[in-house]
Amino acid sequence: MSARIKILLEVLAKYSSPMTLTYPSNTAPNRRVSSVPDGLRGIPERSEEKCIGCKACANVCSGMATKIFDNEQDAKRLVQIFLFRCTFCQHCVDECPTEALTMSKKFEPFALTREDPANYVDTTLDLLRCQNCGKTFFPKKYVDKAYEWLMEDIHPAVKDVVSADFKKVEGYCPDCRRALAYKLDTHTKKHVWLEGK
Ligand code: SF4
Ligand code: SF4
Known about the structure:
This protein has nine helices and six strands. The chain is of the alpha+beta class. It has a single domain (3-153), classed as Alpha-Beta Plaits (2-Layer Sandwich).
């Protein structure tokens, strides 16, 4: 058989069957995910355990996909990504202070209707209620983490007094903390005095 006929037969064999696969029916789910390259920015995922509800992801979200919903009555905060709006920019992952967010390798779109829960990445947190005015303010996990970070970096000379002050005000909203600072003896002047010692 001549070389030309051989090539012709090979070409015909190639084109006699489809060159592409029908998507998604002909692609196995595990193949779809495992065959994507490293570094692919897929659907963002959030660790319920690590998220403290700080809002940083919502503040930097380029697609306005991440929103925060506070429910005053139930004292709950919902941190939500609406995947239809996500541009996979990864800003939220880079800004999250607790590394709660990751870009997964899942790239396939979600459901076709807006209401389908598959379109949302949700985390719900308990909000603290102010002991003075009764309004909700920060998530409890956020306040606990703030205390932890504060104690890591604080100057040893003021550590005890700042720790005690923090514990006095942690149950009050920012407005009431300011309004009650003298009554609770948590005004900042005394820290200035201690640092000068
Ligand atoms: S901890 Fe991370 S995921 Fe949770 S609200 Fe803050 S930035 Fe967003
Ligand atoms: S990847 Fe970008 S667009 Fe998507 S939720 Fe994060 S910040 Fe918003």
